[in-house]
Amino acid sequence: MSTIKAGIIGATGYAGAELARLLMSHPHVTLAAVSSVSYEGKTLAEIYPNFIGVTDLILEDADAVIEKSDVVFASLPHGLCEPIAKKCVEKGRTFIDLGADFRLYDEADYNEWYGLSYKEKELHDLAVYCIPELDRQKAKGAKIIANPGCYVTCSSLGLAPLVKSGLADLKHVIIDAKSGVTGAGRGLSLTTHYPECNEAFSPYKIASHRHTPEIEQNLSALAGEKVTLTFVPHLLPVNRGIVSTIYVDMTKPSSAEALHKMYADFYQDEEFVTVLPLGDIVNLKNVRCTNNCQISVHYDKRTDRAILVSAIDNMVKGAAGQAIQNMNLVLGLPENAGLKLIAPIF
Amino acid sequence: MSTIKAGIIGATGYAGAELARLLMSHPHVTLAAVSSVSYEGKTLAEIYPNFIGVTDLILEDADAVIEKSDVVFASLPHGLCEPIAKKCVEKGRTFIDLGADFRLYDEADYNEWYGLSYKEKELHDLAVYCIPELDRQKAKGAKIIANPGCYVTCSSLGLAPLVKSGLADLKHVIIDAKSGVTGAGRGLSLTTHYPECNEAFSPYKIASHRHTPEIEQNLSALAGEKVTLTFVPHLLPVNRGIVSTIYVDMTKPSSAEALHKMYADFYQDEEFVTVLPLGDIVNLKNVRCTNNCQISVHYDKRTDRAILVSAIDNMVKGAAGQAIQNMNLVLGLPENAGLKLIAPIF
Amino acid sequence: MSTIKAGIIGATGYAGAELARLLMSHPHVTLAAVSSVSYEGKTLAEIYPNFIGVTDLILEDADAVIEKSDVVFASLPHGLCEPIAKKCVEKGRTFIDLGADFRLYDEADYNEWYGLSYKEKELHDLAVYCIPELDRQKAKGAKIIANPGCYVTCSSLGLAPLVKSGLADLKHVIIDAKSGVTGAGRGLSLTTHYPECNEAFSPYKIASHRHTPEIEQNLSALAGEKVTLTFVPHLLPVNRGIVSTIYVDMTKPSSAEALHKMYADFYQDEEFVTVLPLGDIVNLKNVRCTNNCQISVHYDKRTDRAILVSAIDNMVKGAAGQAIQNMNLVLGLPENAGLKLIAPIF
Amino acid sequence: MSTIKAGIIGATGYAGAELARLLMSHPHVTLAAVSSVSYEGKTLAEIYPNFIGVTDLILEDADAVIEKSDVVFASLPHGLCEPIAKKCVEKGRTFIDLGADFRLYDEADYNEWYGLSYKEKELHDLAVYCIPELDRQKAKGAKIIANPGCYVTCSSLGLAPLVKSGLADLKHVIIDAKSGVTGAGRGLSLTTHYPECNEAFSPYKIASHRHTPEIEQNLSALAGEKVTLTFVPHLLPVNRGIVSTIYVDMTKPSSAEALHKMYADFYQDEEFVTVLPLGDIVNLKNVRCTNNCQISVHYDKRTDRAILVSAIDNMVKGAAGQAIQNMNLVLGLPENAGLKLIAPIF
């Protein structure tokens, strides 16, 4: 298998840098170019000393990345990727967007939640949104991949089997999610200033986070009807990881055993999704630094409510790892290439 | 005002030691005696070096504490307090139980959730369960105080105005709570071993935590009907503090403004409960080391669901501080005596 | 005793805000005014929500603080306090500077380490540098107090008895210090961005930190000769606290017992300095949120080297608490007024 | 290259489990068997849920491991490995001891620091102590490898060039080391109980830690004379990593530049040791989860003292990774096989 040249636009943000780290160990890929607006001209290792002795790559501009790469990843704030995607399509590069610009199929949603319009509508017709475990068949050969949001991946995988089963009361879906601080990125803020963030905890963007319509888009597709839910994220004083605790009323009484079987069956062939044995409970630490999603299934008999707990590493399955998984699917590589990661125990 | 002699049975557990710390600064109290089964004969400062130079108290046995004190606090595992309460009543001591033995009015609940029966039923008729902001009028002159659980205090204060209003759909109350690790006490376990607890996060005792019937007892009293709810606690990698994110369906559509007014009015005369300005969001750090509860009120217009966020310090308002507040009420002291604590900023 | 009006210039930095918190509980002080360049016009509680319900103070400008206060504290970056001190002296206010502008007696040192000159030399003649345990007699009635640096206080207290004894080899004094992140202040930086600071550890300003000449100034005064030492600070992933591990060669062999007696005798009358029992080891957590310094004394028989470990809370004994202690001394108040703080256990 | 069967005795301690994790990704190794006294009969994935879906290995006893493996690793408390080593030698297995039993060449040192004697002296003649960067040539074909201690590796690599140069004043070597909590292992203790360990910091075993004679053994070999030094470890509230800040007096004045060149030359061919560019400072986070050692070189001109800062991951280069590096050397595999690990950025 010949080596694929990959490039990263926005390589010094957290997701971009994690992507660089993972691509450097991918058996079929060479990291060919990286760019950064803030640090152009410096080496990647100057910005992240963990790369000293590992790579001599110099941060260039976006055009240089597109020029040198077969596959172009972008990890940028929303609103910047249409022109990049356009260039990639014109030059025959595969474009994988870790940001939000191609995630929402309905432009009205993008307009409502992000305050922007689509300028290049035909690009959006080319774009494929893909959580591989739910959308795998759509990815092969895609020109543009919209890589899903972190909270979205965790919550959608946690809800998919139940929502698809028709047994969920879709008016009563509540997602209480908690994310490590890398989810907020590398930009400085008082909220993420160590003394204000350590020994602290709070929700944020209550019922107004931009990942809400994307979760609903996924669940609506599974349910075959419009789903509207409550989503509340919290900032957790850890570096990495997301745990979603999900509450769903049932259309008729069920049991932990029945739900567990439903989930185990749904994900039985998935390498990256593990349904824990009945009785076990998900812990964020067991998926850290991996592309895995662990899910535990619970049932509150007193209120006839399903409780799903799902965890991912927000930087890997929630960003860089899933982007690589998507690249593998697009290019017909083994889906797990470069992603056989085992969580460190501590 | 003459000085009250206070004693603590179980002074080397976390709640007992925090109580010792707070009582040492109480203007109307002398900490007269402390006991510990594990460390009897040692000084308190040998066990907790923060007390070096502050107190020379020696850990004695429970009988010595009862003998030397006007008010006896106990902070023990459940199932041990009936004989202590009995002795206190016989000797005319006020007894304040930080544990669970007198919290549930219905023995059937105690039997179901704790697996034990009441041996001294007449003591339970004497016992007064008291969250001061909800039950203040019952405390004065009480012989036995059942001090509420930490999760219970946080959740009950967060829910009380809405549940009492009659506007809550009592079939749809979900409490997603997160507690710092001191809530698990000083007993050693793998779960609280630093390398397993740090950079980790998970729920535990999903829909089966013993504080559930106690929360329901409080809410049922406010609602005038039986409330059954879903309660899921999580272990948060911080030392102190609880945040409860509470989801309640409404019986009819409302608004953030209306709910906020309801909460502000309900707690307008309370020194220890603050309803944040509309738009602000509770953060655990702002109540740390205080007897305060901060609550923020939110409304999800898309699903017509109220979202309440409440935070307390589990060791103070959730245990030792509320026990002192209750003592103040019982004895007719100013309710805030010894409790004018300002949270450190970091 | 009539109430003293205190004001804080720079009240929204960490030291200023901690000072505000402590002054609010001082029995002889009213916090009369606070200022902030960044947040003028807002309430202090808007900036720090732990003050909601505690104070309605509005942030003003520095002149307003000087006007309204008997004692003016300033907590500002270096280079800004001479004009403030001048106004205070002219108006008869006591001025207490938590910053560095009046700490170094020798202008050449200030010039070398801070790159600035003294513009108002006569003010420096008025200024009294005071670690109370070492310089107490100088403080009473002072018009300007130079409040010592955090690392300086911790290290000087840890070294004073041995350096004064004449038994230290003054050519071989090494201070390896570790500070919590609040020591870096509230200003944002990548170094203190949570994901870069958490699960990380490193020294900084190796042998070049500005507290070096101040420590040397203190030790030279005690030794009666010029001391030059090696000082290396490290950034510790905790919010508060400093631990200094200090290595000193002896001019002749000694023992742990002899050194311990020397230290215990030296500090026997000090309320805020505790020499731990021989064999115990200092832990940062036992001084957190207090004005205390704990010191443990050790001896390496294999190399005939004394090892001293001292710990303080950098924000209290290292800044705001010591400033209050100094204020108490200047004004003839009980030295411990407002400072009877007991460390929380966790 | 045929696959090597590796086994781990003591696979559920932290070093053993980390070794399991790394061996599972080693290109020339199959993890054939694992043992645990505490958990025999359970699967490894039941003890560490990060292994769910990765391995079905069942914990057996030590004999089963020896039987099934070409290379046997042991990670056990000291005093237990002589009989295991004996069996391995008899059966022709390579034995790699991650514990202390074969580290000290001089039995008197073992007796003094560990309180035990050697029972099988001839085994100790077979044993090879090996930090590869210092002792590489001794490892090939060894029957027993004594894998160095974590603090020892970090400190020895940080000191080797200077000690070997003859420019170090060997009477004035001080190592102030800080280790993450995994260094204390998985055994429960109050010291490592989360609420006592978080937001805390202290030294321990001051000038009495068992790694002291092992560091001295290494440095004495490099210096050609007996080295006696001061070593003080501290417990750092992070999961992984060691930073050693090392102070060395010089026999004659030098400079940062000269020292830096000495270090860069010494390690120029080493893949796992990086000397940072002059002016940069080591941070623990940049070596986390890798087999790398990063070293920065500093010089205090005011006292003519060299300051070296070295960092490793205590679980990888300080234990499991170095054990694999040693295995690679013994068996003639590429030294970096299974160890091309890139530190996660956060």
TrEMBL record, chains A, B, C, D:
PROSITE patterns: ARGC. One of its GO terms (cellular component) is cytoplasm. It is found in: Cytoplasm. InterPro entries: AGPR (IPR050085), AGPR_AS (IPR023013), AGPR_dimerisation_dom (IPR058924), AGPR_type-1 (IPR000706), NAD(P)-bd_dom_sf (IPR036291), Semialdehyde_DH_NAD-bd (IPR000534). It is an enzyme of class 1 (oxidoreductase). Its EC number is 1.2.1.38. The active site is at 150. GO terms for molecular function: N-acetyl-gamma-glutamyl-phosphate reductase activity; NAD binding; NADP+ binding. Pathway: Amino-acid biosynthesis; L-arginine biosynthesis; N(2)-acetyl-L-ornithine from L-glutamate: step 3/4. The keyword Protein biosynthesis does not apply. It holds the Pfam family Semialdhyde_dh. Catalyzes the NADPH-dependent reduction of N-acetyl-5-glutamyl phosphate to yield N-acetyl-L-glutamate 5-semialdehyde. This is N-acetyl-gamma-glutamyl-phosphate reductase. It comes from Fumia xinanensis.
